């Protein structure tokens, strides 16, 4: 039995998990991330790994972006201001004494899907998370496709709607500003609806509220446009949807499937295969361990 460590460094908490090569999570530790001092967090990660008392082949790490995946460094992430331009993998390798691999959370979730999830029987696996934001990844033959500069599948800013809504650093009409849970909720509040999350907007839409129906229609239609575009460019065998919006809103994934089918060539419609993720919140940790196993053991 071989062991790897999956590490998820978040803007609030850091999670560290010991995972075997059957992709079972054996132990886990969680603690607050020091957003101002990366070395403090790294030493807590080492203490956690030492407590597992197992020889590990390596570690996979996800971290708030933007990231320089080619060189294993954090760039100017707004969620961890003290980590800007920090050479994360180099520092972790020194501290842990094992190979360390940095990836973004969506790519790692995609690798988990391709390894043990709905994509395990496919070579070309695309995954999108529709939650607080919109993220995506592509895995080909169990290997993450990063692109020339490490920014492949960074679709949050994919421009779909001329002069459309925006938020944060997302340009007007970017898919995250239309289809994410944050966008759905914010657009509803701006139009006077008393809602706390996207599920409540959808509930109002089902009840016949015209404003909520328009917002949910935009979210689904533009997301379907984005997925249809990805399918035309990448030709994946399966597109897996995860995240709270996709998983908690009844019929959401099925509706996206129907919409995407109408946006493809008739003779390609049979290949539209959009599925709901069956993995839980550990998918990023499992993907991180899978990355270590793939890079070190292969």
UniProtKB/TrEMBL annotation:
Coiled coil: none annotated. CDD domains: ASKHA_ATPase_ROK. Pfam families: ROK. The keyword Transferase applies. InterPro entries: ATPase_NBD, ROK. Keywords: Kinase, Transferase. One of its GO terms (molecular function) is kinase activity. SUPFAM superfamilies: Actin-like ATPase domain. It comes from the Bacteria. Belongs to the ROK (NagC/XylR) family. This is Glucokinase. It comes from Breznakia blatticola.
């Amino acid at each position: 039995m071989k062991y790897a460590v999956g590490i998820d460094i978040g803007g609030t908490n850091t999670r560290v998990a010991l995972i075997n090569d059957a992709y079972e999570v054996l132990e886990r530790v969680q603690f607050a991330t020091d957003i101002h001092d990366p070395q403090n967090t790294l030493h807590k990660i080492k203490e956690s790994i030492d407590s597992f008392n197992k020889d590990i082949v390596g570690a996979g790490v996800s971290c708030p972006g933007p990231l320089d995946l080619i060189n294993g460094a954090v760039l100017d992430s707004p969620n961890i201001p003290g980590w800007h331009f920090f050479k994360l993998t180099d520092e972790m390798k020194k501290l842990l004494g094992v190979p360390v691999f940095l990836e973004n959370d969506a790519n790692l979730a995609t690798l988990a899907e391709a390894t043990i999830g709905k994509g395990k029987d496919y070579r070309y696996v695309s995954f999108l998370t529709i939650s607080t934001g919109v993220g995506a990844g592509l895995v080909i033959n169990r290997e993450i496709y990063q692109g020339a500069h490490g920014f492949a599948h960074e679709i949050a800013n994919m421009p779909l709607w001329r002069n459309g809504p925006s938020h944060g650093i997302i340009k007007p009409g970017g898919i995250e500003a239309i289809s994410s849970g944050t966008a759905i909720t914010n657009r509803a509040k701006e139009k006077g609806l008393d809602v706390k999350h996207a599920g409540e907007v959808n509930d109002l839409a089902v009840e016949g509220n015209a404003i909520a129906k328009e917002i949910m229609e935009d979210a689904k239609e533009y997301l379907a446009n984005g997925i249809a575009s990805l399918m035309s460019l990448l030709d994946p065998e399966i597109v897996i949807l995860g995240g709270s919006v996709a998983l908690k809103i009844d019929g959401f994934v099925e509706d996206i499937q129907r919409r995407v089918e109408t946006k493809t060539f008739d003779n390609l419609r049979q290949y539209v295969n959009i599925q709901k993720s069956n993995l839980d919140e550990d998918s990023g940790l499992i993907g991180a361990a899978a990355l270590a196993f793939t890079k070190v053991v292969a």
